[in-house]
Amino acid sequence: MRKWSKLTRLKLLALMVALPVIGLGAATLSYQPARFLVATGPIQAGHQDISCQACHTDAPGTVRQQLQANFRYLVGLRVHPVDFGYAKVTSAACIVCHERPNERHPIYRFQEPRFEMVLTRLDATSCLACHAEHKDERAFVEPTFCRLCHEDLTLKSDPLDVPHETLIAEQNWQSCLTCHDFHGNHPANVPTRLRDAYPLKSVTDYLANGPSPYGPVKTYEARKE
Is residue 11 within 8 Å of 67, Cβ to Cβ? Predict the structure, then answer.
């Protein structure tokens, strides 16, 4: 009689527990009216008219192939698991609608070697590092994240009445977004006096799905699906 190692027995037990859950998930995913049951929360402001299928595409392979591949992963015969039901949502799905020529901080820029240390603290090569669907917020970063790239900022001719170097020395990073639109898609004029900056509360409300302090007009509107 073959003897199973403790690790193998644990993997088989995990598989026995997982299979019914996977089977139920497959049934749910294949039944269109029930798909809303797997939604984990509200969608982003502005995405209410976009279909689920615009972002959630079918994973490669049949359900049987996906189950087989994940079974091989569970028992140590495969290095990585595979997507089940739907493929993982990536930045590519965002770029389909949100790519624009005036992007101030495109994700490809952060692939430059000079940002190597920044990426250990924030994965700026992915839209999902700051934004996530099914959360009641536009972005889940703190408004001080600009410091990750701009701690050594110097300007030859500083237009601000309180120089940027002074704000940096004072660690006043929460003021960045009260003047600057991170993606640069709002044509509003950047204040040159600190007292004219947008209230910090309006910025944090905006990050939490509130109205934009930079105004409703956008240089480029997102494309429709």
Answer: no
What is the per-residue pLDDT across 42-78, written as a single tens digit (0 to 9) for each?
Answer: 788 788 888 888 888 999 998 888 888 888 888 888 8
3-state helix, strand, coil in the chain (%, to 5): 45, 0, 55
| Count of beta carbons in the 10 Å neighbourhood of residue 25 | 15
Owner of token pair 């910025």: 203
Alpha carbon distance, N-terminus to C-terminus of the chain: 58
Cβ atoms < 10 Å from Cβ of 181: 20
pTM: 0.75
Total length of the chain: 225
Q: Report the C-alpha gap between 218 and 54 in whole angstroms.
A: 23
- Distance between CA atoms of 79 and 69, rounded to whole angstroms? 10
Q: Is-contact 29 86, C-beta < 8 A? A: yes
86: helix, coil or strand? strand
Q: Whose CA is closest to 209, among 143, 127, 140? A: 140
